[in-house]
What does this fold into?
Amino acid sequence: MAADTNVTRRALRRLTGRSRPAPPWVVAEPEPDEPAPIADAKLFAIIGAWMEEDVIAATVTNAFTQGCERVYLVDNDSTDDTCREAEAAGATVAEVFATDEYDEKLRLDIMNRVVRDVSAAEPTDHVWWLWLDADEFPHAAGGETIRRRLDRLDRRFRIVGARFINHFPDRMPAYISGFHPLDFQPLCEEHRMGCRLKHRKHPLQRWDRNGPPIVCDRGFHRATSDERPLHEPSDAIYLHHFPYRDPDVTRRRLARLCGTDESAATRVRANDDAADGMVPRFQTLDAVYRQDWANVRNYRADGAFTTPHPIPWRELAGPGDAEPERWYTPAELDAAIRATGATSEPATEHEPS
It folds into this structure.
């Protein structure tokens, strides 16, 4: 009976001209018991930024701490010290481009070109790229760095998804430049969407000299390639997102971006999907800093904005995941906090959810 059904389906496809649906762009698989990793693959990072002088040095340093050999910056003509801070932290400014509006397509076109050109000039045949916004801090699960994670990853995997952890301020200082924001904002929630495993972003992508190119798509959420489907491991990395830092710094930046600053027209276009995150973030900024979660507009889900329900990171993290590597000592962190006159204790106690 099954054979007759298959014959009938093939006959109908010939009559109607319909082809089989395209395979998914990515599929997840468990890692094999005996993986065959690539021994000589490089690991580079590429960061897209606009007006991020307060956090970019820490973003670059964290990428190096995670094992990146080089960090490249693509900057949207920041008028602050973003580029200088990034270079001082060891990054290479790959390109600076100017636009009157936020242009995600142009940003991704430039970043993809940088990845392609840099990779092609390398003597190795394989380069892993870590795609980041300037407020994103990745690390691998189980206390590993990303470099160590990739060193044992089977070669079949050319893309790695991330568990996207969105963070919120609940104390002062909300952030001190040069440090990992996780030490100031442990309050967070996981935002799950995207592939079958609900990885919001897929920030690790491998360039292969003799393989079909992978082109990173808007927001680093997904990618396109003639190799379809791409294969990702079931075990993801973590990607911490810190859109809220010092209140005054964050407000000034979002005011310039969203057009309420009298000195600048809006940079966010109404028809750009990025506006869905940026404008509501600015409109509910006061509620964020007073932890009035019911009045915070979060990411869209099923066409409507959600409200956050954050919990401490240690409650969300898996075994061994809570403490990614730092580039400074606890004593140095404590001294920096004391210098602000604050205690870095939460304004209110958080009840487990």
